[in-house]
């Protein structure tokens, strides 16, 4: 474990923002992480895959890059398998591993960027599936005491792109691993989005974990830019949830508005639709802009400034609120 000084974070965030960390260290052992948390008095930033963060300035403190590795079967029976997965594992590589092993439950979450440690933090979800549906436990270290705590599914208080680690316990814990309960006899979820159409186009006659994973990868690749080619962090904003009465009022003014009914007379409205219909899709401002194919994605075309992207996001929020009376909030962390 070697602490480095004045390290560029450009290659550690998918936006490709060139800021510096005053100090930087990669951690591969839990004991080293506990030691760092106990000894460091300066500000600390925990970094996973860097796919859900926007840097707007240099970080004056210690950036800890989590590189804890390991995938282990800790229990199994005829129907299910329990996997203990370290926080530093790449999420999509875990999905591919599970698909290859015949473990079902996260195939719809293929190609989501980032590491396993970030997955429960924001309850990642896509194409009708969320991680809370398969998550048994989260293991985390308390930043102040260094103690390892275990949170079961219920205590994580999962919501839409929310968990206890993003609100009540924000910046109090460092997630070190998760336990997932996956199915050996999976049921396939193909009802959401364009999965069925993609499977049909691919001439898939017999459903499988791989066929669904491949379809999801194909859909995501067609909609979202590759961070290796254009700097971005995927969906910048969360889809807002509004009362059904408000949605019905908006329908009268905007008949083409899209919405998905939720329990308790709520409706989820695609933030991308709101942004696109506020005139932002494809807009470019120097080195930054809104993606040409997906209005939900803000991009860095190269040499972009994080503060400028934050300002663009704020302008978009104000514009959507002014036109539709709906508040959209960032899904990513802004530092």
Walk me through what this model shows.
This protein is α+β, with helices and mostly antiparallel strands and 335 residues long. The chain has three domains: 4-66, Uridine Diphospho-n-acetylenolpyruvylglucosamine Reductase, domain 2, CATH 3.30.43.10; 71-223, Uridine Diphospho-n-acetylenolpyruvylglucosamine Reductase, domain 3, CATH 3.30.465; 231-334, Alpha-Beta Complex (Uridine Diphospho-n-acetylenolpyruvylglucosamine Reductase, domain 1). It is built from eight helices and 20 strands. It has helices spanning 30-39, 91-101, 118-121, 195-201, 209-223, 244-253, 271-276, 306-324, and strands at residues 4-8, 20-27, 44-47, 53-54, 59-66, 71-76, 80-86, 125-126, 129-130, 135-142, 148-152, 173-183, 231-232, 241-243, 260-262, 266-268, 284-285, 288-290, 298-300, 333-334. The two termini are 25 Å apart. 39% of the residues are buried.
What is the third-level CATH name, the topology of the largest domain? Answer: Uridine Diphospho-n-acetylenolpyruvylglucosamine Reductase, domain 3
- Termini gap: 25 Å
Spans with pLDDT under 50 lasting ≥5 residues? none
Query: What's the number of domains?
Result: 3
How helix-rich are the residues, as a percent range? 10-25%
Order of strands, main sheet, comes to 6-7-12-10-11
Q: How is the main sheet built?
A: 5 strands, antiparallel
Would you count the extended β strands for me? 20
Task: Give average pLDDT, whole number.
Answer: 92
Q: Please tally the helical runs, counting DSSP H or I stretches of 4 or more residues.
A: 8
Dominant shape? globular
- Run of helices and strands: EEHEEEEEHHEEEEEHHEEHEEHEEEHE
> In percent terms, what proportion of residues is strand?
25-35%
Radius of gyration from CA coordinates = 20 Å
According to CATH, what is the class of the largest domain? Answer: Alpha Beta
Looking at how many chains there are and whether they match, the oligomeric state comes to single chain
The CATH architecture designation of the largest domain is 2-Layer Sandwich
Helices and strands: which structural class? alpha+beta
């Amino acid at each position: 474990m070697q602490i480095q000084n004045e390290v560029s974070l450009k290659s550690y965030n998918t936006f490709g923002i060139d800021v510096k960390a005053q100090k930087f260290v990669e951690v591969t052992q839990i004991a080293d992480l506990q030691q760092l948390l106990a000894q460091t008095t300066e500000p600390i930033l925990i970094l996973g895959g860097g796919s859900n963060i926007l840097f707007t300035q240099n970080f004056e403190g210690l950036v800890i890059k989590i590189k804890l590795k390991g995938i282990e079967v800790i229990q199994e029976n005829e129907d299910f398998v329990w996997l203990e997965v370290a926080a530093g594992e790449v999420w999509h590589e875990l999905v591919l591993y599970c698909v290859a092993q015949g473990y079902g439950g996260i195939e719809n979450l293929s190609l989501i960027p980032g590491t396993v440690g970030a997955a429960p933090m924001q309850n990642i979800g896509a194409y009708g599936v969320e991680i809370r549906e398969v998550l048994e436990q989260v293991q985390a270290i308390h930043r102040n005491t260094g103690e390892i705590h275990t949170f079961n599914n219920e205590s994580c208080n999962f919501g839409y792109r929310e968990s206890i680690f993003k609100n009540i316990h924000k910046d109090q814990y460092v997630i070190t691993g998760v336990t997932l309960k996956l199915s050996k006899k999976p049921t396939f979820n193909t009802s959401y989005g364009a999965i069925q159409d993609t499977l049909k186009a691919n001439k898939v006659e017999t459903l499988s974990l791989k066929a669904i994973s491949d379809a999801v990868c194909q859909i995501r690749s067609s909609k979202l830019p590759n961070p290796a080619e254009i700097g971005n962090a995927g969906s910048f904003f969360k889809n807002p949830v509004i009362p059904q009465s408000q949605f019905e009022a908006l329908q009268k003014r905007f008949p083409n508005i899209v919405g998905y009914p939720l329990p308790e007379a709520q409706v989820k409205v695609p933030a991308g639709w709101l942004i696109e219909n506020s005139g932002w899709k494809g807009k470019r401002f120097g080195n930054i802009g809104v993606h040409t194919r997906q209005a939900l994605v803000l991009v860095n075309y190269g040499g972009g400034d994080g503060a400028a992207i934050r300002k663009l996001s704020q302008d978009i929020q104000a514009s959507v609120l002014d036109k539709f009376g709906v508040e959209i909030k960032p899904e990513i962390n802004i530092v």
